[in-house]
Amino acid sequence: MKTQLTRKILGSCILFSGIHSLVFAAETEKTVQFSSLKVSSAQKQTPEQKALSKPGAYSAIGEINNLSSVEQALRSTPGTYTQMDASQPGVGVNIRGLSGFGRVNMMIDGVTQTMYSTSPSQYAHGGQPYNQFNSMIDPNFIVQIDISRGQQDGENSINALAGSANFKTIGIDDVLFSNHRWGIRSKAARGTNGLGYNGMVAIAGKQPIFNHDGYIGAMFAISGHNIESSYKNGAGFNSHEFATTKDFNQKPHSELAKISFKPNDSHEIELSGRFYNNKFNRRTIESQDYYAKYRYTR
């Protein structure tokens, strides 16, 4: 009797354990394990987005692709203003109510611009002649403007009480697409009521060296403008009747050349020359900038 009871108990245990094994096996077959998945974004950040990651009062302006002027782009930035004077051919940046040498450090590719100009007195209409510190820059060469408000930007804040504005010009990588060795980039615009027309052509090339660990590249760009001084206001009056003359017409032309040598990821040498020529308001204006930069990264 006891033997039969023991057999029944053992048989029940074996039966239940077999069912449990079948259920576990069925559940195991339904389980699928995936390898780890990494999700990342390859979208290139704009200069405006990069400025948000910096501590302090920073702003950035990307390339201007419409008919807006440099002054209009600067005025759209918080705490930044310009002196829009038809009798001056340059760009004068005002930060938090201050401008000029010792207050705002205006730079082109990191080279400080300290030009001071005064307009003839006959256009002041009984007042003092207009004058300002400004920089001679071709808008077609600008790809980015970095603005720092306050003394917080290292070497850019030297001799700058209110802040700095750095105009970055077109470079080799702005002309070439990725994995391409040469390219051409052009830009043209035309408008009425004082806008005139302008155009720019840039050509660049890059040659890999040292088993593609580095490269040597060069770029040359030329730009020209024909800027009319006259415009009509909202009432339909021509500006020659109250503010401007034909002497305010401008035909500036500029050249920009850059050479870059990068043997590896740690070292890079860049040479640049920029030439600006203009005849404006009975004045001949020539501006030349040269720089040599060396970068070392680890």
Structure write-up:
With 298 residues, the protein is of the alpha+beta class. It has a single domain (47-296), classed as Ferric Hydroxamate Uptake Protein, Chain A, domain 1 (Beta Complex). 15% of the residues lie in helices and 41% in strands. A 6-stranded antiparallel β-sheet has the order 11-12-13-14-15-16. Strands 1-9-10-5-6 form a 5-stranded mixed β-sheet. Strand 11 and strand 12 form a beta hairpin. The radius of gyration is 32 Å and the shape is globular.
Q: Would you summarize the structure shown here?
A:
The chain has 298 residues and is α+β, with helices and mostly antiparallel strands. It has four helices and 16 strands. The strands form four sheets. The protein has a six-stranded antiparallel sheet with strand order 11-12-13-14-15-16.
Rg, alpha carbons: 32 Å
Can you write the helix and strand succession as a string?
HHEHEEEEEEEEEHEEEEEE
> What is the highest CATH level, the class?
Mainly Beta
| Biggest beta-sheet profile | 6 strands, antiparallel
What is the domain total for the residues? Answer: 1
What portion of residues is helical? 10-25%
Provide the CATH architecture.
Beta Complex
End-to-end Cα distance, whole Å, is: 86 Å
- What percent strand? 35-45%
Strand order of the largest sheet: 11-12-13-14-15-16
CATH superfamily: TonB-dependent receptor, plug domain
Number of strands: 16
* Overall residue-averaged pLDDT value: 80
Q: Outline the low-pLDDT stretches.
A: none
| SS class | alpha+beta
Under CATH, the topology can be stated as: Ferric Hydroxamate Uptake Protein, Chain A, domain 1
Q: Please tally the helical runs, counting DSSP H or I stretches of 4 or more residues.
A: 4
Task: Describe the global form.
Answer: globular
Keywords: Cell outer membrane, Membrane, Receptor, Signal, Transmembrane, Transmembrane beta strand, Transport
InterPro entries: Beta-barrel_TonB_sf, Plug_dom, Plug_dom_sf, TonB-dep_rcpt-like
Main location: membrane
Pfam family, one: Plug
